[in-house]
Amino acid sequence: MRTTARRRTTTGAAFALAATLALTACGAEKAADTQATAAGKKPDSTPLAVTDPLVATFDGGLYILDGRTLKPARTVVLPGFNRVNPAGDDTHVMVSTDSGFRVLDTSAGALTGVEFTGAKPGHVVRHAGKTILFTDGTGEIHVFDPDDLATGTKPGGRTHTTDKPHHGVAVELRNGELLTTVGDDEKRTGALVLDKNGKETARSENCPGVHGEAAAQGEAVAVGCEDGALIYQGGAFTKVTSPDPYGRIGNQAGSDASPILLGDYKTDPDAERERPERVSLIDTRTGTMRLVDLGTSYSFRSLARGPHGEALVLGTDGALHVIDPEKAKVTRSVPAVGAWREPLDWQQPRPVLFVRGHTAYVSEPAKRQLHAFDIASGRKQATVTLPKATNELTGVTAHH
Q1: How far apart are alpha carbons 130 and 174 in whole angstroms?
Q2: What is the pTM of this model?
Q3: Residue 46 binned pLDDT confidence (cut-offs 50, 70, 90)
Q4: Where a domain ends, among 163, 183, 205?
Q5: What is the three-class DSSP state of 32?
Q6: 123, 195: one domain
Q7: 73 and 87 within one domain
Q8: Both 289 and 232 in a single domain?
Q9: Is residue 52 a contact partner of residue 14, using CB atoms and an 8 Å limit?
Q10: Residue 344 has pLDDT above 90, yes or no
């Protein structure tokens, strides 16, 4: 993957503020943009001077914030329930809307004209210098170089359509292999791998309810199952079985610094909203799984990895729990937000954990706040109070 002058390496030093910053965003985030749009006027198009931008969604739009200070820079009006993910460069964020994947330019403070249309835009994966989009409603997969977003036109790249549309995910490996899930609108059964020419080279349908994706050290890629996980490495699939008959892993977080993947872990197939208190650690070297009891529940937006491969979980007790994946042990718990409870509706706001470099960003919708913490010390570096409670949280994350 080439490096461009547009990219910045995000480090902990970039966030070493002398003291906690408390910012009130009323007026600071250019609320005039919202008013202008509502009145039919053209919003402010002045380029934004933001460092390592963050993007937070709220009911009716997006906030673009400075990653150092958390100071809001602009409000982008966008009705509906929207999801956000890093696009893979230092400028853009992918926004999942009703019509498809759209591209937000954080330096311009506006959505571009680039869109990957399709019903039910789903997972966005970044791996080996590529960005991979999966559209659930069509089964379409788009793979592109995120650097190409700088042209302002829709990037070209590899495309593939699954046999049947489903809630799936895909990832392209360094050697050009494309791993994608298998299923339809009623059930999902596993994953397959295609070579550069689109020829199927591996398949496993021993993964009921397949969901989510993460990559570990050595490019071991795993997807979650209702009875464990499925690992693809070295041209073959390996099944990791849960210790419970129903031990579902649906969300995972990986790190190039660790061969062990972090996953959620649920055991009640009939629960309206299970609130688990254990997380899974999947060792891709041995094909084994260990469980860690946190003593508190968490949500699917609670999992992340630190710069040294630490496993991070934001608990409903309000603490950021740091796990040593090799020892399968919680080493620290850092107070981050007030205690909270995961809502029944997955689209409703709840605290979110987003990690970039040495900094953990945590949202606190109940107080309309966002916080930044140094992962190594646990010290709070910045706090901002926003006009509206946020839902999803992400930022630009260039490949290094």
Answers
A1: 9
A2: 0.89
A3: confident
A4: 205
A5: helix
A6: yes
A7: no
A8: yes
A9: yes
A10: yes
